[in-house]
Amino acid sequence: MDPVTTTLLLLVLAIALFATEKLPVDVIGIILVIALVLTNVLTVQEAVAGFGNDVVITIGGLFLLVGGLVRTGIVDLIGRRMHRLAGDNVFVLTALIMTTAAVSASVLKNTTTTAMFLPVILGLAAKAKIAPSKLLMPLAFGAILGGSCTLIGTSTNLAVSGQIVRYGQEPFSMFELTTVGVITFAAGMIYMLFFGRLLLPNRGGEESLTEQYHMREYVSELLVLPESPLVGRTLGEANIGTELELSVLGIIRDDLRIANPSAGERIQRRDRLIVEGTITDLLRVKEESGLEIKPDFTLNDVVLEGGEVELFEVMVQRDSNLVGQTLKTLRFRQNYDLTVLAINRHGDTFINKLSNVMLRFGDVLLVQGKRNDVEMLVAEREVILLEDLSQSSFRIEKRKWAITAFLTFLGLSLAKITVGVDIPLAICVLIGVMVLLATKTIRYAEMYPLIDFRLLVLIACMMSFGVAMEKTGADQYLAGLILNYFSNYGDLAILAGFFALTVLLTQPMSNQAAALVVLPVAVKAAVALDLNPRTFIVAITYAASFSFITPLEPACVLVYTPGRYRFMDFVKIGSILTIIVFVVAMLLVPIFWPFHK
Questions:
Q1: CATH 3.30.70.1450 for domain 217-298
Q2: pTM given for the model
């Protein structure tokens, strides 16, 4: 099999694997690199060259700079002031959220911005008595649009900037993409404010947590009769979970409420046990002497809370150690001292047999436990707490150093414009990181958990695949096919085709992978037509960021479940927004980056 065919078959295989989501994206990238070496398409040195690219260092350093801003509560401070300005006005609040998200994402990346503002916006929705679904999609869309405005706004921009040097192009400057990016954001916000906002569903925010998760049919109250053999035994000794397959969530003893009781709690006469289980499991209680089902039981949040024990909603993070694990394999209750009562996955609620449900990114868990235990899980970056964190969790006294570190990075990155000294972006980032470490704004032990290594591995692997496309001539082959079918329709039609192809690929693939796959083909097509390759490079960069049509974009995944959205909500609202940004890009990109130099 010739190298071109081998490379294209591996490309199709990679796209299929990205679409199925059966394997993590970084694992798919590694498999792709291994296959390129084993088929002799690349040498080992060529295959691993992407890992030495300075873009990998730059993105890793940006994760740490962003971590400094998060640790010091700067984003939380911004969010808390939004309600003062907007009050209960949905229009003004939506405009503020989208603008704030866009500005933040232009320096913090869209996924990071969405994750940081998610609990804040949920709190704002509760204060203003607005359904979260009215505010969360604008948050995600604002962050995605804002991320396209600067070089560091998304890792996609950085990855493309690092790759285009191979084609004799200058890397993007910090604000090269800003003008068109800002205009595109303005067009998107106008659409969301005057039309898209009207299409948003009105869901969530009105029911208690127990009602939202439809737990009433699974939670009941059992009365311990005086003659019950369970009297005097601990919950651990009673084996209620093993023999009756019921989970004891609480005990009501006279006027005392014991929420989330320990296995050592002793059962007393007339105790009322709050248990969770299926109807079939509860029917077994009739056969168990000494227990009686109370028919007039009314479930509410208060029944499951008491003392320091509360109910919380937490969302599984993208790179959490919980992903791909079950509650049983994690020994979740034993290790975290928290009880998972239900799992919500994109509108589907799991309550029965939770211990065997494999957790995914974006799953929202209804947990019962103490706030300190929940905040510890949040601090370990395993989950996002879907409410405002206490101020004590932030290093407020280090806030000035976090800002100093970020401004140092920005100032050094602009040194070529201001003082004529060209400092590599990776060095600018590393100097900013040194400021954080020297001032202990970020502690050394926190450095590596803050970095998304999965993304770094993916970008490095896809850069190596770009080398394979160029070395084998697969990019020229695909470019030739496109020219044969579309060259008669004009330069703009070809540019539009590459834009549409990139948007299409971002649905099953990561944005970075989609951009780096299309990039070499587009550059070869531009050269063959004697057009400016940078026009195509910029269009592809924008297209890779504009993923609104489905909730598969990480920023959209984060708001999917908390906003109680359905898949078609994104298709309906996002499709129109995609058409708008497509038209804006097709009008403006050829003006700012002409087809002919």
A1: yes
A2: 0.77
